[in-house]
Automatic annotation (TrEMBL):
Its cofactor is Zn(2+). The keyword Metal-binding applies. PROSITE patterns: ADH_ZINC (PS00059). Pfam families: ADH_N, ADH_zinc_N. Residues 13-355 form the Enoyl reductase (ER) domain. InterPro entries: ADH-like_C, ADH-like_N, ADH_Zn_CS, ER, GroES-like_sf, NAD(P)-bd_dom_sf, Zn_alcohol_dh. Keywords: Metal-binding, Oxidoreductase, Zinc. Belongs to the zinc-containing alcohol dehydrogenase family. This is Zinc-binding dehydrogenase. It comes from Nocardia africana.
Length: 359
């Protein structure tokens, strides 16, 4: 494949500003793969990155950094040591590449690597600590890629990175989900995929809690046994009633809402587990004494670790994950500001907003 010398990429400007400009096509090292990006999607972390609140030091200089950590495309070139992929392969990427030298990475917890952000020691997170996929081309370490089955298109592939986060959360539980009662708080992309995955893993009953009826309706379509609109009903009572008043075995908190941790604790049975998945925009308070007195475990996960994207792709390839109703909008890369506006305002019931980078 003949490669151009330059490409169009979206770059951070001043806080709250993202624009496109021409940059050199990335050069790749021996263990890297150059991806020609077809689809990339926005998520709440990208909004935080655009505002520069994500960066403790204010972030890179304006016009130099390319965000984007959810993307899929085709292999355009491979490094000298790469024989796992070939030019033309369709792939989806995983954002996190651990340093693979610290105790956490060696134990498999590479999203919690002790050298986070230290590229000199091998760590990189696409679109967060190194340039990401809001560009025509991006360089990825070979270990972050999964080949796509013919039945999984690029839109679906990008959404599967989000499904990987849910699988990582189920991994953290360290137990079989079959037969467990589960409540999911927050019918965003993560929560809606959590409903599907919980059903695929045999959980019952599965309750989805939220405040947007249109998204709760999607949850019903995805297999939720019960949906609860927290604007109209007492969500804690409704969830506990689904288990005869005992509370559910597992609560997945996917909303990041200020009261959600307390709600999750009250929904959980004695000796149950709450897994925190959503990011909280500010510190929250919770009655941790209730957790202590009832033996409730609190766990948390970040991102799509434990090789979970590969497993999400496998499920989708088997026809066991549906993603099409989550993709609500498409924008060309040069309209990325409009894409962010649609996503942040939830205009026209926006859920997953896609950038059509190249066709």
């Amino acid at each position: 494949m003949s490669l151009p010398e330059t490409m169009t990429a979206a770059v951070l400007g001043e806080p709250g500003v993202i624009t496109t400009r021409t940059l050199p096509v990335p050069e790749i090292g021996p263990d890297e793969v150059l991806i020609r990006v077809h689809r990339a999607s926005l998520c709440c972390t990208d909004v935080k990155i655009r505002s520069r609140h994500f960066f403790a030091d204010g972030g890179p200089a304006p016009g130099t950094f390319v965000p984007g950590h959810e993307y899929a495309g085709t292999v355009a070139a491979v490094g000298s040591s790469v024989d796992e992929f070939a030019v033309g392969d369709r792939v989806v990427t995983e954002a996190h590449r651990g340093c693979m030298r610290c105790a956490n990475c060696l134990a498999g917890a590479y999203t919690d690597g002790l050298n986070y952000g230290n590229r000199r020691k091998g760590h990189r997170t696409q679109g967060m600590t190194v340039n990401g996929g809001f560009a025509e081309y991006v360089a990825n370490h070979v270990s972050t890629l999964t080949k796509l089955p013919d039945t999984v298109d690029f839109d679906a592939a990008v959404v599967l990175t989000t499904a990987g986060t849910v699988i990582h959360a189920f991994d953290a539980l360290g137990t079989i989900i079959a037969g467990a009662s589960i409540a999911v708080i927050g019918p965003g992309p993560i929560g809606l995929l959590a409903v599907q995955l919980a059903r695929q893993l045999g959980a019952h009953p599965v309750t989805l809690v939220g405040t947007r009826q249109s998204r709760l309706d999607i949850g019903t379509d995805f297999g939720a046994d019960q949906v609860v609109n927290a604007r109209d009903d007492d969500a804690i009572t409704a969830v506990r009633d689904s288990t005869g008043g005992l509370g559910v075995d597992i609560v997945l908190e996917c909303s990041g809402a200020p009261t959600a941790v307390d709600d999750a604790l009250r929904m959980t049975k004695r000796s149950g587990t709450v897994v925190l998945i959503g990011f909280f925009p500010q510190p929250v308070t919770a009655d941790l004494n209730h957790a202590v007195m009832n033996g409730i475990s609190l766990l948390s996960v970040r991102g799509e670790g434990s090789g979970s994207v590969r497993r999400a792709v496998s499920l989708a390839g088997q026809g066991r994950l549906r993603t099409e109703s989550l993709v609500t909008h498409h924008f060309p890369l040069d309209e990325i500001s409009d894409a962010f506006e649609t996503y942040t305002t939830r205009s026209d019931n926006a859920i997953k907003v896609m950038l059509d980078v190249v066709e």
